[in-house]
Amino acid sequence: MRITRRRIDFLKKIKQLYETTNLPVHYARVAELLKVSKWSAYEMMKKLEKEGLLASQYEVNQGEKFPGRAMVLFTPTHLGDLVLSGEALKEKIPAKEWQQVNERLLSLCEKLKRDNPKEIVEQLMDELPGLESPLIFSAYMIVLLTTQLQTISEKGVGLVKNVVMNTIRAETGLIIFTGAVMGSMLKTANQFPLLSQIVSYMDRFQANLAELNQSEHALLMNFFEETLEKAT
Fold first, then answer.
1. Are residues 77 and 150 in the same domain?
2. Per-block average pLDDT, block size 10, for the chain (232 residues)?
3. Are residues 176 and 101 located together in one domain of the fold?
4. For tag attachment on the chain, is the N or C end more exposed, with fewer CB atoms within 10 Å?
5. Are residues 104 and 53 in the same domain?
6. Same structural domain for residues 103 and 71?
7. How many CA atoms lie within 13 A of 90 on its CB side?
């Protein structure tokens, strides 16, 4: 699950319509308000449903010429409300703290293009043991693994990104990313003296992914996408 700006726009509009009318929302109305095609609106709302952010139901449209034709309607779920309000994130880490970590790690990613990646890796490795928050630890691991993308060709990096970003579940996408990078590193293990240390953190990283909620998975997926843009 990835909470992109477009998804947020859809969720906000659907929640607004639902709260105004207290009725389930039809995709045609959302399409009209967001100025997109009916098909685009329907496709996006079905994706949000798969991610647990919307729930759907079918009702007979009494206004149709031939009664009995059903139409699909959508309502926000509790998870959708949590994503919009940010309450899911507050359960484990203050938003301000996450923002500070986010900005610092992304600045390190930008340095990968001009500085020695080894120094950045050593810096991250020094700080990892003292990180208690599963969310922050996971973000550090994403950056740490991103530094190793030099072992993958440009075409390979594009393929990995495409596969990861098109998974329905964010947790699955992050696991795929981890596996792809680690597999490449193992093929050239002699080039990475810190490989054994990185591997030693993988169990904790995977355990964290299992512990985090869907909203936090989405946050990490957004962070992953920003990390690749900065570093590659």
1. no
2. 75 92 93 92 92 86 58 88 62 68 88 77 88 91 84 73 77 86 72 71 88 80 84 72
3. yes
4. C
5. no
6. no
7. 6
